[in-house]
Amino acid sequence: MWDVVRKKSLRSKAFIGVVVMFAMSFSGIAVVNGFAFEIFMDTGLTVLEASIANDVIALVEEAMKALPRFPFCGKEQKISKITVSEESTRF
Length: 91
Prior knowledge:
single chain
């Protein structure tokens, strides 16, 4: 715990986490997640379809939590410069 206070690199990452949690708490996403089943039912889905959709949302949320957080923090990464004309010729 004290490493977060002492090390500047950890302090900035902890600050990002606090900002994200603060933004989530005021964005209303928790309410949407809490009432997802009822929202799906109101859109005309059956009970089974709404349950499956709710389960899919929960699985996606858990998968997103498992992804590495901010892999670019603390490392310099080169960003390739692509112009619009180069991008349009790729496809």
